Amino acid sequence: xxxxxxxxxxxxxxxxxxxxxxxxxxxxxxxxxxxxxxxxxxxxxxxxxxxxxxxxxxxxxxxxxxxxxxxxxxxxxxxxxxxxxxxxxxxxxxxxxxxxxxxxxxxxxxxxxxxxxxxxxxxxxxxxxxxxxxxxxxxxxxxxxxxxxxxxxxxxxxxxxxxxxxxxxxxxxxxxxxxxxxxxxxxxxxxxxxxxxxxxxxxxxxxxxxxxxxxxxxxxxxxxxxxxxxxxxxxxxxxxxxxxxxxxxxxxxxxxxxxxxxxxxxxxxxxxxxxxxxxxxxxxxxxxxxxxxxxxxxxxxxxxxxxxxxxxxxxxxxxxxxxxxxxxxxxxxxxxxxxxxxxxxxxxxxxxxxxxxxxxxxxxxxxxxxxxxxxxxxxxxxxxxxxxxxxxxxxxxxxxxxxxxxxxxxxxxxxxxxxxxxxxxxxxxxxxxxxxxxxxxxxxxxxxxxxxxxxxxxxxxxxxxxxxxxxxxxxxxxxxxxxxxxxxxxxxxxxxxxxxxxxxxxxxxxxxxxxxxxxxxxxxxxxxxxxxxxxxxxxxxxxxxxxxxxxxxxxxxxxxxxxxxxxxxxxxxxxxxxxxxxxxxxxxxxxxxxxxxxxx
Length: 600
Hints:
Layout lengths: L2 H11 L3 E2 L16 E2 L10 E7 L4 H12 L11 E7 L2 H10 L3 H4 L6 E3 L4 H12 L11 E2 L3 E8 H6 L9 H10 L14 E4 L5 H15 L7 H5 L1 H11 L2 E5 L2 H13 L9 E5 H8 L20 E4 L7 E2 L2 E4 L5 H14 L2 H9 L11 H6 L18 H14 L3 E8 L14 H13 L7 E7 L10 E9 H13 L9 H14 L6 E8 L11 H8 L9 E7 L5 H10 L4 E4 L5 H9 L3
Parallel strand pairs: 3-4, 3-5, 8-9, 8-10, 14-15, 14-17, 17-18, 18-19
Antiparallel strand pairs: 2-4, 5-13, 6-13, 7-10, 7-11, 7-12, 15-16
Helix pairs in contact: 3-5, 5-16, 8-10, 8-16, 17-18, 17-22, 19-20, 20-21
């Protein structure tokens, strides 16, 4: 099993904290994985340096660390360093550093150097350090290892319909298409304009896209002010852009994977119209690696309809991949970090960054990238870059997004079969643990989000149907107390009527579909289908298949306990273009539920 394959499996089993509530302090879990990717192989050196990297360049840095370790470089006095690399999504790493790194809790060794995707995270981390009266960054100026601008990835025919590459395209075009649809450009067959966008509390592309939209709303490229962020006209513009979002993924590669599936089936123009991503991911997609698996670069199936990189003319951010030394580093480790950083900036290593779709640390695109993502003039055209906002302004942007984001209409469907009475450890049953997690998850919804509740098991004397509606979707501000009481009042009995319930829940959500909201079903179960009256998985998958429905609702599934049929649950979610979450270890159910809610 290669590192990336292992990471994808680990991503299923290690959901982390993701931010969904209101405010900057709500950085919680995401399904992005924390993983040790290099063991620091090489000569036996007495200076050990742990580097934590953002996920999209973790494999590459591990490769380069191994090369460094075997290079025979010396720090002086005959000493040498061994570098190890672990990887964590930037938002999660920022939160871990702000709290004080805990190797057991955070799943990776405490780093002495950190390289997130963007210096935006350094701005947020510095603000958290000030708030906690604790130094979390040194005063050293960060050095960029590589660069990659935020881009809007679009299927080539759609970009051309907008006038690409001759016409300048920006966030105002995104807003216009969101309001008018593709019919306004003579392509009614493409339907509504749909935007793929990540959660800005954990994803760099989500954060950068949110910042860029605020700048575009004001027409500025620098010195954005708090008053401008709070201006009603600005907020209306940003809310309009957010209205086109499909759902808020925790990792843009989820969108890329679904795009690749649609392309393989000849439906590349029927899923997302555009995805806000780091330019490098567009290169990986076009080279047959939609999930970011660098081992598949140039080896996987290339798309029939490639994506092009549209760089917003009204402003985009250059993601600078900074390398910073942390206060935890000793004097010797600081010397090792400086030497490793210098090694990474040498031409041979910079060329490796370019090979994998990054631009070098000075912003120069390599020939592979220029050809792959169809950069005009071989990437020489000037980008319309905006300056990163001041710390207070960046904080206000995130707070505003919590209010302006697209709201949700979610049906929570909970398994109450008899097996939920079994122990989940810690002196509680599976049902008790699930109820507690569901109640806690309610706090992550916005007051204007609508949430309903179903329960399911096989037929009993109390409910002749294998599922039942307990509460219809209503705004959380009105129904939170009733939802809490209803969840706490659930009791377990009977078997698991999974297929019948999934079909009925999706149909109910479709019947009440609100196109102004993110419509979804969340199914939590600890078992597999035990309902003979409806036991045909192929028929279910056909009935809920998003490609066969004029309108569709995503079904997010949560496997709770080792008895859960995770493979089948994954197929159910995949059929609806959603994600399946792994909580087969009951200890992680709280984190998993927060991860699920982050989509909304």
